[in-house]
Write a structure and sequence with these properties.
The complex is a heterodimer of chains A (267) and B (313).
Chain A lengths: L4 E7 L5 H12 L6 E3 L2 E2 L2 H5 L3 E4 L4 H10 L3 H10 L4 E4 L1 H6 E5 L12 E6 L10 E5 L11 E5 L4 E5 L8 H4 L4 E3 L18 E6 L1 H6 L13 E7 L2 E4 L10 H20 L1
Parallel strand pairs in A: 1-2, 1-3, 1-4, 4-5, 5-14, 6-7
Antiparallel strand pairs in A: 6-11, 7-10, 8-9, 12-13, 13-14
Helix pairs in contact in A: 1-8
Chain B lengths: L24 H12 L3 E5 L2 H10 L3 E4 L4 H7 L8 H10 L4 E6 L3 H10 L3 E5 L20 E5 L2 H10 L3 E4 L9 H18 L3 H11 L3 H10 L5 E4 L6 H9 L4 E4 L1 H4 L4 H13 L4 H8 L26
Parallel strand pairs in B: 1-2, 1-8, 2-3, 3-4, 4-5, 5-6, 6-7, 7-8
Helix pairs in contact in B: 2-4, 2-12, 7-9, 10-12, 12-13
The chains are: A alpha/beta (267), B alpha/beta (313).
EC number (chain B): 4.3.3.6
Pfam family, one (chain B): SOR_SNZ
Protein name (chain B): pyridoxal 5'-phosphate synthase (glutamine hydrolyzing)
Chain lengths: 267, 313
């Protein structure tokens, strides 16, 4: 019998975490027969209760420093990379979930990892270069209706990396690039592990320049990668939590329910 | 108790008929403020201090030539900082960099926007350039934060286009009492508005000198419709957590860090205190052995003419 209670935490060290919780509640209304709870996560004990996790937008350097000082960095790596529980990072959260990042602060920053990608931080420039654009996302409900996405000092996925056992050593040898440490996957997470990074969305350059919506398909492979998924780790460089549109949250939540039920059956 | 800021897709701007058109700058401006929530914004006067702040976990830094405590001590006219120094700070860190312009000095704002700063603080800490008017902030692409002592001031600034609000407190004193007074005043006025019917709200808008629509929205939300930080007198982790428990979304620390004994340690402690503001055990731990706090000025013994918070109503 499928269980009815699923706990999905939102990392609440800093940033726009309440917005995610609001949209998770909206998304939960689309999935009956389940009782969800969406706690804020600031401690290892709070994380331990979670079946899935969102890492929100905010300042990735702040989150990573506070996580480290709050004894949460290793538990987060265990959650994402060893247990392979469903995790979604938006903007700063995407940076933390990347195996490699450049343009970090002097001295680098700690990453959690989980996605075999290299992100370029503050890719579009400073706040005056931040923008909003309508995207056509084919994986969400009602895909014809553009998804308003807000890019705030946003990162992009600069490169998809080959999956390797251990750290991304080639990336580590690059100048101004930091990599996440290796955490071996545990048995319970093995099924959720994938060596393939799927590109779920690109930002067509024209869309940004004209303030118009267009699909990446119409524009070929051009355009920056702004949404990726590898196994059950998902990352977006924009902020679905700022739009009031719960379609991405509903899609992700459905995937979480499937992943949790699958895991329960296996154990 | 803190009330969460609900999502409004357009920000405080009016909804648009065509959702597919262009980018909504008000939503983007207010969006950055949301990304700063739960964080600490620290005053820094050079690249070295900016790096200390970034390593401590600051969510942003405020670049200025003199911290408020020195502005008080030096006297004279306080103006926008030298662009060279602001650019050095922008080059030194990857977190957002804010800078201050004088109240009403829209050309200083144009210059700061041209430099590419991430937020402008139209601030009473600098000497006002216009005795009556604030800058019309909506036309700028760079977002603005402004100070307030009460709900009327806050809503007037939002109407002018501010995407973020902070308490004024009394900058450069290390005395948190004025920040508490301003936050409690805003909270009390919002609570009063929330209990009013539409006719009473119209009268209250007139009394506050605030736009009716913004007041109505604030009454519905039971909080300010934009992100609201504490500022002006925060000197310890306990001060920061106090302001968070009073309902602020984050904290500015000015003179409190770099006028203290061990700036890096105090900065780290205040960052931890803002994240774990409800956890007294963490607050006790981070408050230990921080060295000398800034000496401070008791605002109760201060001459009226020395108060910065009176500037820009």
């Amino acid at each position: 019998m499928p269980r009815t209670r699923i706990t999905i935490g939102v990392l609440a060290l800093q940033g726009a975490f309440t917005e995610h919780i609001e949209l998770l509640h909206a998304a939960a209304a689309t999935i009956p027969d389940h009782d969800f709870s969406f706690p804020e996560v600031r401690t290892p004990a709070e994380l331990a209760r979670c079946d899935a996790l969102i890492l929100p937008g905010g300042e990735s350097t702040t989150m990573s420093l506070v996580a480290q000082r709050s004894g949460l960095l290793e538990p987060l790596r265990d959650f994402v990379k060893a247990a392979r529980k469903p995790t979604w990072g938006t903007c700063a959260g995407l940076i933390l979930l990347s195996e490699s990042a450049n343009r970090t602060k002097a001295g680098g920053q700690d990453l959690i990892g989980g996605l075999d990608v290299r992100v370029s931080r503050n890719h579009f420039g400073r706040q005056v270069d931040s923008f909003e654009a309508g995207l056509h996302l084919d994986f969400i409900a009602d895909p014809q209706r553009p998804f308003r996405s807000v890019f705030i000092r946003a990162p992009v996925v600069e490169r998809l990396l080959p999956h390797v056992e251990g750290v991304q050593a080639e990336e580590a040898s690059k100048e101004d690039t930091v990599v996440a440490p290796s955490v071996p996957v545990r048995e319970e997470g093995r099924k959720a592990l994938s060596d393939h990074v799927e590109v779920l969305a690109r930002l067509p350059r024209e869309a940004r320049a004209l303030g118009k919506s267009a699909t990446a398909g119409e524009l070929g492979e051009a355009g920056d990668i702004i949404a990726v998924r590898q196994g059950n780790v998902f990352g977006t460089s924009f902020h679905p939590e700022l739009t009031g549109d719960a379609r991405i949250h509903a899609w992700w939540l459905k995937g979480v329910v499937e992943a949790v039920e699958q895991r329960d059956r296996a154990s | 108790m803190a009330t969460d800021l609900p999502i409004h897709a357009n920000g405080t701007a009016a909804p648009r008929a065509d959702e597919d058109a262009g980018d909504n700058q008000q939503a983007v401006k207010e969006g950055l403020a949301r990304m700063l929530k739960g964080g600490v914004i620290m005053d820094v006067v050079n690249a070295e201090q900016a790096r200390i702040a970034e390593e401590a976990g600051a969510a942003a830094v405020m670049a200025l030539e003199r911290v408020p405590a020195d502005i008080r001590a030096d006297g004279g006219v306080a103006r926008m900082s030298d662009p060279k120094m602001i650019q050095e700070i922008m080059a030194a860190v990857t977190i957002p960099v804010m800078a201050k312009a004088r109240i009403g000095h829209f050309v200083e704002c144009q210059i700061l926007e041209a430099l590419g700063v991430d937020y402008i603080d139209e601030s009473e800490v600098l000497t006002p350039a216009d005795p009556t008017h604030h800058v019309e902030k909506a036309p700028f692409r760079v977002p603005f934060v402004c100070g307030c002592r009460n709900l009327g001031e806050a809503l007037r600034r939002i109407a002018e286009g501010a995407a973020m609000i902070r308490t004024k407190g009394e900058a450069g004193t290390g005395d948190v009492v004025e920040a508490v007074r301003h936050m409690r005043t805003v909270n009390a006025e919002i609570a009063r508005a929330a209990g009013m019917n539409i006719e009473e709200l119209r009268m209250y808008a007139r009394e506050l000198g605030a736009p009716f629509e913004l007041l109505k929205r604030t009454a519905e939300l039971k909080r300010l419709p934009v992100v609201n930080f504490a500022a002006g007198g925060v000197a310890t982790p306990a001060d920061a957590a106090l302001m968070m428990q009073l309902g602020c979304d984050g904290v500015f620390v000015g003179s409190g860090i770099f006028k203290s004994g061990d700036a890096a340690k105090r900065a780290r402690a205040i960052v931890q205190a803002v994240t774990h503001y409800k956890d007294a055990k963490v607050l006790a731990e981070v408050s230990r052995d921080l060295g000398e706090a800034m000496v401070g000025i008791n605002t109760g013994a201060m001459a009226e003419g020395d108060r910065l918070a009176k500037r820009g109503v």
